[in-house]
Amino acid sequence: MKRYNYDTFVREKKEKYFALRAKLERKHLPRSRPRENDERNFLILRDRKRWQNWIKTGKLKELAPRCWRIKL
Fold it and tell me: What is the pLDDT of residue 27?
């Protein structure tokens, strides 16, 4: 697994972010709209079913408690 220096990584991301912001000449970048409870619950349920389906078909395998492998 590739290792990153956190401070360098954040500095590079900030530079790209502000460069894009200046290029687009916007004060704020677009944000996603707030979701209603029903919509949010539906999306969570759909993602959970997709996750379970991937495990059942073997597309997703658990290597350790917090480590997974996905076959694309």
Answer: 65
CA angle 66, 53, 46 (to 5 degrees): 90
Is the residue at 18 inside a domain?
yes
Name the nearest CA neighbour of 50 among 40, 60, 41, 62.
60
pTM higher than 0.70, yes or no?
A: no
CB contact set of 51 (below 8 Å; sequence gap of 6+): 60
How far apart CA 6 and CA 71 sit, in angstroms, is 28
**Structural domain boundaries, residue 49:** 6-28+36-70
Contact 58, 71 (CB under 8 A): yes
Q: Where are the beta strands (DSSP E) in the chain?
A: 60-64, 67-70
- In the block, which residue shows the tokens 């996905």? 70
Q: What's the domain count of the chain?
A: 1
